[in-house]
Amino acid sequence: MNKQISEMLCASEGRYLTRAELASLRELAAQLEVRVLAMEEIQAKEDAIVERTLKDVTTAYPDFLNRHKDARAKGLRDLAFVLRYATHAMLRSDPAFLEDTLLTWMRTILKGVGFTPQFIEDTYKTLERAASRELSAAAAELIRPYLLQCASSLSKRKPIA
User: Where are the domains of the chain?
Assistant: First the structure.
């Protein structure tokens, strides 16, 4: 559940929602169908987005595939994983979900593998660009902030505008 909705419902236990709370709930509900459609589009184009990302990353970092065991398979797996979690966060309209359920853990893993912050940032910015090329403008705009959150959080750099 969206964190904002969850907190609002917990805070309103034993009373009716205020006008402001109802307005927030209606606004989130009105956006839900658009987010569901974007999620379906992302799901349908996941393979193309992930393949394009890995191709672009290996062009920029040609030694990547040779330096890591099963780099191609693991790269495709990790990119798809991040895209799916970013999509769930987009569907929920909840960046905290993404940070709490994936990014904190994954940042530790990437650091442990020895990837540089620059490589990580470049990889997940490339994922955002690939999504923008493969998706409709509406879907790309909805997923964009979550993919940029991934690039920023996983590389531990300041937020990307």
Answer: 32-155
Rounded Cα distance, 100 and 92, in Å: 13
| Multiple choice CATH, 32-155, 2.60.120.200, 1.10.490.20, 3.40.50.300, 2.40.50.100 | 1.10.490.20
CA distances from 46 to 92, 100, 124, 157 (A): 19, 23, 14, 26
Write out pLDDT tens, residues 30-68: 889 999 999 999 999 999 999 999 999 999 999 988 887
Return the sign of the alpha-carbon dihedral for residues 123, 36, 161, 25.
negative
**Helix, strand, coil percent values for the chain (each to nearest 5):** 85, 0, 15
User: How many CB atoms are located within 10 Å of the residue 55 CB?
Assistant: 12
- pTM of the complete model: 0.87
